[in-house]
Amino acid sequence: MTTSEAGAVAVDILLAGAAVALVGCAAWSVIHSRRASTVRLFGRVLRHPRLWAAGAACMGLYVLLALGNLTEVTPSAWRTPGRWIAAVLLLAALALMAAHGVLDHRARRRS
Asked: Rounded to an integer, what is the distance from CA 41 to the centroid of its chain?
């Protein structure tokens, strides 16, 4: 294994860990949003936590699916459907995060 291959493996592991952590934060915010309409995440107030959680979960799953395609872990029969699913997840994540950003900006302007 060359140095560049080892570096690529390390980056893949870091990205996979970050994606799992993002999905975990999304699950945590959904669990804690059952009691209140806002949640504190890393010391900041998160308004519309379920909308943010949906976008974060889509983004985390997109990264994990894309890493599976890049590292050739995904079986060859799943590559094309996997790319379509990844594209849908990415578009959904971008739309959900954009909507969350707009709603969060409006909520901050009101208060």
From this structure: 15
